[in-house]
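Ex. 9. Protein: PAP2 superfamily protein.
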Amino acid sequence: MFNKISLSFLLLFLISSSLIAQETDSLKQKTDTLRQKTDTLKQKKPKLRDQGKLKLYAFIPATAAVAYGFVALNADFLRSADNQIYKSIKHDNRNFYTSADDYLRYVPAAAVYGLDLFGVKGKNNFRDKTAILFISSAFTGVTITALKKSSNRLRPNGLNDYSFPSGHAATAFASAEFLRQEYGEISPWYTAAGYSVATTTAVLRLYKSYHWFSDVVAGAGIGILSTKFAYLVYPAVKRAVFGKKGSNMVMLPSYQNGVAGLSFSGKF
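Predicted structure tokens for PAP2 superfamily protein:
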């Protein structure tokens, strides 16, 4: 039983581990570079336009995850694997239920703002990272909704036919990638924490019988790609909206009359 369940989570583990390994290698290279430049007194943050230059290999794990999910829709051997994993999980967990997954999927993104609030500065300012998160969320939502309506895959619990792909997994991994992008260069532990929370969210969806294994794998890939896409296009979006010289507009969180929101101020 333990071996079957362990194998069911292997692909999710490989996705997360490969991304964490990429971040660790990147951090090591940058640390070595900084050591060589001992005469540099102040490290400059990467320019926003440079954040849009992503290396092709960074897309491979997430793309493979999405491909796995699509192949599993019609490949008998992968559908059989989904069924075996489902039966293995439910054998000793027939009455398992928790609502933790409904909240955990947002934790990594919330951590970005929490760290910023406590003075740990990430890659981007509040306005830019909020805009990036909005683009990522929009792309994730549109993609997931379109695929759910077109795939018509029945959930393991028979509730409806919106099983593929997992929206919770997509949101969780998009959130984890957002945390990695903003704070992964500061410490790989931020990346590890974010992807651990995302993986936990995906596992809980399996235990609750809301998804097949291939559903959460595909959802994870879509979420990661959505955030990478957001970072890739945002520099161009920002230039189109604010122009090359940028803008004096500032976006800040606000709280008035018991209602939380965003406030804008600037010079025109």
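Check your answer against this statement. Residues 31-35, 37-43 have pLDDT under 50 and may be disordered.
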